[in-house]
Amino acid sequence: MKCDRRFLMKSTVGIAAVATTKSRLSAAEEGRISAAELDKAAAAPVLKIASLRSPVKIASIDLLRDRNNHFVRTRSTDGAVGICVTNSRAAYLYPILQQLVAPYFIGKDARDLESLIDGVYLYRSNYKLSGLALWCCVAWVEFSVLDLLGKIMNKPVGELLGGVVRRQVPVYVASGNRDTTPEQEVAVLARHIEQTNAKAVKFKVGGRMSNNADSMPGRTEGLIRIVRKKLGDNITIFADANGSYDSRKAIEIGKLMQDYGINMFEEPCPFDHLEETKRVADALSIPISGGEQETSIRRFRWMVQNDAVQVVQPDLHYNGGYIRAIRVARMAAEAGISVIPHMSGGGVGYVDVLHFASCTPNLGDFQEYKGNISQTGSWYDPPLRLRKGAVNVPTGPGLGITEDADILRDAEPM
Ligand SMILES: [Mg+2]
C-alpha cells in the first residue's frame, strides 16, 4: 500500500504538485523518524534578524477597525510602525487580544519575537486557553511585529523568516459550496478555472462534521464520479470533507476518489480524531491532508511521525503565526512531506499565504486562494495580480502594504 501511494504520487496528473518533496518513500512512511528528530527540526531558530543591532522596544499594540477589516498596529518607542489585517474572528476575540496577549509584549524587545511567542503562552496562564481563540490573537501581534521589523530592515517578511525562495505562487481555487448538485458544482469549478487560469481546484464533499451524512443525497459520490472527466487531465483536484466521516465511510469515499482521479483528500475525519485519520491514510494510496484547526505543535508532530497525514495544513492565524507554522513545516520537511497552509484570513488572507509560501522550501505546488485580489491587490507595490494561475509575492518591506494604500484611513481604535 505504501508503495502504491508513492507510485500514485508520481503517476497521477498533478500530484507531484502535492508531494514535491516526496520523490522517495517519506521517512514517516518508512517508520524511521523519531520524535526527537522532529522536535529538533521544530525548535531550530527561525528569524534572520542578526543585523538589527539595537533593541526595538515595543511601545504599544492597538486594535482598530473599519467597516470591512480589523487591524493590529504595533509601534516601537523609536516610532517604527507595523500593521496587519486580522481574520474576521477579531470581531469577537478582541478581549483576549487586549487583555491577555498584547500587554505581555509591551516594553519587550521585538527582536526576541520567537521567545516572546513562547512566553505569552505562559503569561497569565494563557496556556489554559490553548486553542484557536488564543493563537489567533498571538498571530496578529506576530504579524504586526514582523511588519514593523521588516520595515526597519527594509526587507519583506520572507527574508526575516529564513529567506525568500520563490516570488510566484501557483494557487488552487476553492469552492465552499455544499448546496450545489454535482453538475452545478462542476460548472462552478470550470468557471473558476476559466476566470483565473488556475491549474488546481478544491471542492467540498460530505456534510461538514456530519457523522457520515451528505449535504444532499448522493452529491459526494456523484461529484467524484464526474469531476475528473469534466475538468480534464491537466487540472489537480482536491476534495475536502471538513471532518464529515468516520474512518469506515472515509475509506469508502477515498477509494472512490482514487478510482476517479482525485489528487488529495482533506480532513476526512473530525479534525481532532487523529487515530481515525491515520486509519484512513493507512488504507488509501492518495495523500491525506489535515491540520487546519490544529494549534498544538506536539499534535502536529504526532501526525507527521505517524504518517497520519501526507500534507500538513497549519493555518497561519489559527496556529499562532508564521514562526509556529514554519516549525510545523520544518517537521514535515524532516519527514519528507509537504505543507499547504489553510487560509482563514479575510481580505488579505491570501497574501499571508503568499509570504509563507515565499520562504517555505517544502511547499505543495498549489496554495489556497480565496478573497478578492481586485479589491486588495492594489495595496501593494507592485500590485498583486493573479495571472496564469499564480500570484506574485509582495516585495515591499514587511508585509508589503504601501503607505499610499492608507489602509487605516477609515479605521477607529477599539
Ligand atoms: Mg479544509
- Assign an overall shape: globular
Radius of gyration based on Cα positions: 21 Å
SSE series: HHHHEEEHHHHEHEHEHEHEHEHEHEHEEE
Number of strands: 14
Structural class: alpha/beta
**CATH homologous superfamily descriptor of the largest domain:** Enolase-like C-terminal domain
Biggest sheet character: 10 strands, mixed
Unique bound compounds? magnesium ion
At CATH level 3, the topology of the largest domain is TIM Barrel
Give the low-pLDDT segments.
Answer: 1-24
Domain count: the total is 2
* CATH classification class of the largest domain: Alpha Beta
Mean pLDDT reading: 93
Distance between termini?
54 Å
Write the layout of secondary structure elements.
Blueprint: H1 2-11, H2 15-18, H3 27-30, H4 35-43, E1 58-65, E2 70-76, E3 81-85, H5 90-105, H6 113-122, H7 132-153, H8 157-160, E4 168-174, H9 182-196, E5 200-204, H10 219-231, E6 236-240, H11 247-259, E7 264-266, H12 274-283, E8 288-290, H13 297-305, E9 311-312, H14 322-334, E10 338-339, H15 349-358, E11 367-369, H16 373-376, E12 386-387, E13 390-392, E14 412-413
Parallel strand pairs: 4-5, 4-11, 5-6, 6-7, 7-8, 8-9, 9-10
Antiparallel strand pairs: 1-2, 1-14, 2-3, 4-13, 12-13
The protein binds magnesium ion (MG).
